[in-house]
Known about the structure:
Elements: E1 12-13, E2 23-24, E3 27-28, E4 88-91, H1 99-104, H2 132-139, E5 143-150, E6 153-161, E7 167-170, H3 172-175, E8 180-184, E9 190-199, E10 204-209, E11 219-220, E12 231-236, E13 244-266, E14 273-288, E15 300-303, E16 307-317, E17 328-332, H4 333-344
Organism: Catenuloplanes indicus
GO biological process, one term: proteolysis
GO molecular function: serine-type endopeptidase activity
Amino acid sequence: MTDAMHRPEQQINIPQRYEGNAHSYGSGLAGTPAYAPAALSPLGLPAVPPAPPAPPAPPLYPPMGGGPIGGNGRPRRRRGRLAAAALALALAAGTTGGVIGNALGTDGTPTGTSSATAATVTAASAETITTLSGVVQAVSPSIVTINIQSGRSASLGSGVIISTGGLVLTNNHVVADGGTITVDLADGRTVPATLVGTDASHDLAVIQLADAAGLTAAVLGDSDSLTAGQTVLAFGSPLGLEGTVTSGIVSALHRETSEDTGEQEPQSPFGGVQNQQRTTTLSDLIQTDAAINSGNSGGALVDTAGRVIGINVAIATTGDSTGNIGVGFAIPVNTAKTVIAEITGTAV
Length: 348
């Protein structure tokens, strides 16, 4: 089975609502495993014979285009390029077709999960944040869910509030298809938004919230100071589950990948399009093993001081798997700062 480059755009089919169990990527959306429970013996243990001894583990091989396993290779900016034959790169702005419709309902509001509780959080300095829970409390008010309604379909992604005036940073591929934009805030409000500008070459975009009252802007850090092994947290709305936080480390720096943007290229100046999707190469990315899944696109990758050091953009997948395998990517925040200044005319 060959791997292919694809983007799991999270489409929500509005007209038909699936009333069965909602599953995505092999797991129940509301926490229910997507497998039948084993029969239980009277003692409460699975009524199955003991498993045979596990076969010896296969030898490890370095990924195509990567450095040798063991970490002895010198870091190079282009050594981490992922070959399409080894890994399929999936944009992290989720897609689940009609399946997600049952979990989100027709208005994109999650059902079966707790809604975000309104809270007043004072932005903490690096010195006052001493636990991961403290980081979550400080950063969560700055993370939003972005809903795109276009005709009879809908999609969603994540975003980061970058100014108290209502500017939100996200990925270009979250908003590239156009449509009506609404944003779910951490305090429970849903407000309309408009597109300010995009940078397709870096897969970044800025939108403006119509209601900027009471917003908490994220603190942007310095991605040039990152080193492999640092603890990081990924914030966003995977599978529409707002307020989700996962943890991991910076696995590597200066990765380069190619992603399918899903855009069709013009065939000629006289009109028409080719059935060929445009591929965008992203370089200097942060690689992390913090779980990033469909719907996390545009969310924040944050250090233990509560500073945004990256914008989640893509995940690597193998075979038919489209979920997290521990290889995610984020755009460095220093790159994002440059793009924000170009789009808005204001440095952040």
